[in-house]
Design goal:
- It contains four helices and two strands.
- The chain is mainly alpha-helical.
- The mean pLDDT is about 80.
- The radius of gyration is 16 Å and the shape is globular.
- The longest helix has 18 residues.
- It has a two-stranded antiparallel sheet.
- Helix content is about 50%, strand content about 10%.
- Helix 1 packs antiparallel against helix 2.
Amino acid sequence: MDSKSTFLDDRALAGRRSSTLDRYELLLGEFESWLGDAILKATRQDLKRYLGHHRQTRSPNGAAFVNRHLRSFYRWALSEGLINDDPSVGLSVKIEPLPHRTASDDGGSATGRVVDIRCTEP
């Protein structure tokens, strides 16, 4: 069994909903496909590039969502002894809220926009 499947099994045992498990599975698969290598081989630079990719190709909060889920996976992998260093440590995505909308606005979604992807050294 690969690390992604084991992670999903552990999350299921921890009581995560099936919709959450489906999101984890999709996100981890997309990242591994984008990476072109095993997910456990990703570096901090790979994660920064992937978050930047999400910032440009998905919704404004997409990079923050991806960051949270990847951090969860890598914390788990570290706790299981599958990796020696967590590449997600210190990565954060800063979201700036959009200005308040008025009744004359077009009614679109105002979720915020990504301002910065930061990495502090652990």
